[in-house]
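in:
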């Protein structure tokens, strides 16, 4: 039966579908520095292809994605924090602490309880950061710098030596497991990115977190609980750092108490490369994944040519400076 609603005319066969046009329009409004990093990644891939035959082998590609899992997950949490205008320097120790807890407790209380304890510790660590920042309005840099030291000390209080779990499931089901040719850890990371994208773009809480970095006072005047959302952002950061710590320890088969040094730099670099603005006001899950991939390709390439890690650190620092300067000029 007729509904009384006008029938929308079909689009011409030669016209571009509406969704495609919206997607193209979105790209047209992206900032030039985003194009620069995309072009840089393409050029890098061409250079790699011409310089070595090893890079595009299935084994190397699999290793590349397994290696970016840790930074990929930590960067997701860092993205949420940066969107609020904050920063989390304690992600490295949280990765180490949760990894060594999961590895050390697996043989004592079982695999599943050990993983739950590690995840809970990550949540509590993030909540501590968020509480101090939101409740007392302390600078995020100072708070997370302090907890970086405190969490690192807690690691050595728990264990001064590496932990090697005897339960084979700890490695075979997580870091060492595969679904076909794809590592389980990579699947976990790839699932997390669309979930965070939907959280930031399709939920009221996520949109409020994004708005915080743009204008915190306006968010407060709109009746949104600023403290609660800042706390949630740091809890999310701690949670993803905990997942990263568990998967890293599982992939290596051993948890080192000194692991995680410099992880905050890698995460910040990935977010900034992907469009994140330090201080809030820009960034997204898709761009962050691109930043993680760029850093992963650079690290993999330098490793293939046996370049020392010191040069990798120099290059990452230069990338951050370039990205921040470029986005500052476009504002």
């Amino acid at each position: 039966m007729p509904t009384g609603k006008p029938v929308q005319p079909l689009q011409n066969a030669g016209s571009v579908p509406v969704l495609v046009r919206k997607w193209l329009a979105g790209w047209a409004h992206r900032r030039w520095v985003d194009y620069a990093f995309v072009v840089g990644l393409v050029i890098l891939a061409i250079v790699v292809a011409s310089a070595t035959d090893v890079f595009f082998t299935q084994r190397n590609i699999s290793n590349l994605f397994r290696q970016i899992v840790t930074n990929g997950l930590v960067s997701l949490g860092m993205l949420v924090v940066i969107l609020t205008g904050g920063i989390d320097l304690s992600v490295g120790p949280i990765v180490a602490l949760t990894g060594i807890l999961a590895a050390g407790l697996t043989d004592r209380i079982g695999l599943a309880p050990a993983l739950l304890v590690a995840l809970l510790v990550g949540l509590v660590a993030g909540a501590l950061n968020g509480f101090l920042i939101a409740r007392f309005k302390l600078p995020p840099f100072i708070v997370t710098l302090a907890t970086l030291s405190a969490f690192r000390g807690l690691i050595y209080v728990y264990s001064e030596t590496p932990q090697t779990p005897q339960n084979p499931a700890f490695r075979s089901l997580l870091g060492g497991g595969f679904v076909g040719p794809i590592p389980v850890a990579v699947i976990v990371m790839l699932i997390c990115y669309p979930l965070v994208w939907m959280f930031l773009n399709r939920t009221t809480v996520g949109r409020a977190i994004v708005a915080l970095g743009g204008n915190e006072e306006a968010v407060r005047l709109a009746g949104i609980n600023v403290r609660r959302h800042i706390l949630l952002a740091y809890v999310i950061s701690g949670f993803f750092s905990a997942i990263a710590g568990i998967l890293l320890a599982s992939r290596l088969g051993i948890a080192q108490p000194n692991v995680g040094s410099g992880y905050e730099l890698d995460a910040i670099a990935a977010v900034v490369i992907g469009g994140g603005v330090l201080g809030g006001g820009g960034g997204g899950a898709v761009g962050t994944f691109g930043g993680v991939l760029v850093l992963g390709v650079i690290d993999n390439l330098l490793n293939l040519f046996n370049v020392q890690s010191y040069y990798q650190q120099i290059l990452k620092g230069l990338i951050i400076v370039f990205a921040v300067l470029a986005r500052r000029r476009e504002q």
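note: Residues 55-260 form one domain.
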